[in-house]
Amino acid sequence: ALLLGVAATLLSGCGYNAIQVQDEATKSAWSEVVNQYQRRADLIPNLVNTVKGFAAQEQAVLIGVTEARARATQVQVKADDPASLQQFQAAQGELSSALSRLMVVVEKYPDLKANQNFRDLQIALEGTENRISVERNRYNEAAQTYNTARLRFPAVLVARLLGLGEKAYFKAAAGADRIKPDDTALPY
């Protein structure tokens, strides 16, 4: 009975519970990131169809957006796998670039810019991009908290024993550090 009491006392202070709480927080934050990327992916077909109605001759750009969306939604990612997170982030970056090209094309079509449906979709897309940024930051904060908890003694021993690895972080797009506050181009 004494041995069981000592074992219970040692295990209660080992950090296992704290790691599990942080792991769940990271998973929750990750699901919000995925939700916002899915929201963006869901908006794109409507946006493409609206643009197609006004600018059918811009097929290359429309096809580019559609293909980038398909690639972005096919990437499977695990938060504790930096390579898959990097692949996911790259696919999302390609989609963002394709959307940026689409918005440049739209500038040539005043009737499209005046279309209420297009404006509503554009506002929804801009709001979603902002939500994506917020949720990525929240995920990075949760991952940092988890990674820190995982490295503290004695939790580090438990983490190693259970094979609990580091959570990967979202990183800024290449070249984002060179953007000045007055630049109008987005880094993605």
Detail the topology: elements first, then pairings.
Elements: H1 2-12, H2 16-54, H3 59-74, H4 82-106, H5 110-114, H6 116-151, H7 155-162
Helix pairs in contact: 2-3, 2-6, 3-4
Flag low-confidence runs.
179-188
Query: What is the chains' assembly state?
Result: single chain
Look at the helices and sheets and give the structural class: mainly alpha
The DSSP helix count reads 7
Give the radius of gyration: 22 Å
State the distance separating the first and last CA atoms: 61 Å
Percent range for β-strand residues: under 5%
Describe the fold and architecture.
The protein is elongated. The protein has 7 helices and no strands. It has 188 residues and is mainly α.
Task: Kindly list the characteristics that best describe this protein.
disordered C terminus; mainly alpha; 188 residues; single chain
Short synopsis of the structure:
74% of the residues lie in helices and 0% in strands. It has 188 residues and is mostly helical.
